[in-house]
Amino acid sequence: MDKCGNKTDEELVELTLKDQDYLFCLTKRYETKLLSYILRISNVSKEEAEDILQEVFIKVYFNLNSFDKELKFSSWIYRITHNQVISNYRKIKARAETITFDFKDEIIKNIVSEFDIKEEIDYKIFREKIEKSLNNIDNKYKEVLILYLLEEKSGREISDILKKRINTVYSLISRGKKLLKKELDLLYN
Questions:
Q1: How many domains, in total, are found in the chain?
Q2: Residue among 89, 98, 82 nearest 48 (CA)
Q3: 97-100 contacts, C-beta under 8 A, 24 or more apart
Q4: Comparing 115 with 56, which gets the higher pLDDT?
Q5: Is residue 47 part of a domain?
Q6: pLDDT tens digits for 89-129?
Q7: Are residues 74 and 116 in the same domain?
Q8: What is the domain range of residue 144?
């Protein structure tokens, strides 16, 4: 029987605090999501992203005792990931490159409906336009939109991850969506 089972994140945290073997369950649950997130918000190679992810899980392990049970575990681990990406960025003085995003068709459909685009869409072309548009907007909006549109995080979760007030997050999402829409309009006209 799978020892991870259908346990919640919080249950796994409690179990991990008693038996470090349960960290494997949390690692497996989050490794793909966090690797994708790292690649979306940074301009590092997959290998570098995997190194960052390894650092994230080391920090999770050493800081698990300080996990605030009032927060969602996913917000907490995304916050650690976010901070690790920033730390890595500062270390290597990130190169000025564009970022490639890994879009699933379901996310593209959500973005199409979010921006109320009516025409028949070639998802491959739209994916490229979204990618180009996201790379053209300021990082503070890009980061929030990646969490909101691509990672499908709520405003509260984004607030926890970025350590910004909830009203600020909603404001950044709103402004970011307007900027993204403007960029998309430029590409479609």
A1: 2
A2: 89
A3: 97/43, 98/43, 98/131, 98/132, 98/135, 99/39, 99/40, 99/41, 99/42, 99/43, 99/131, 99/134, 99/135, 100/39, 100/131
A4: 56
A5: yes
A6: 877 654 445 555 655 556 666 666 666 565 555 666 777 77
A7: no
A8: 105-188
Residue 2 lies in a domain: no
Residues 109 and 176 in one domain: yes
Whose structure tokens read 């690797």?
A: 35
**Is 163 domain-assigned?**
yes
- 3-state secondary structure string, the chain? CCCCCCCCHHHHHHHHHHCHHHHHHHHHHHHHHHHHHHHHHCCCCHHHHHHHHHHHHHHHHHHHHHCCCCCCHHHHHHHHHHHHHHHHHHHHCCCCCCCCCCCCHHHHHHHHHHCCCCCCCCHHHHHHHHHHHHHHCCHHHHHHHHHHHHCCCCHHHHHHHHCCCHHHHHHHHHHHHHHHHHHHHHHHC
- pTM of this prediction? 0.65
Q: Are residues 86 and 116 in the same domain?
A: no
73 and 118 both lie in a single domain: no
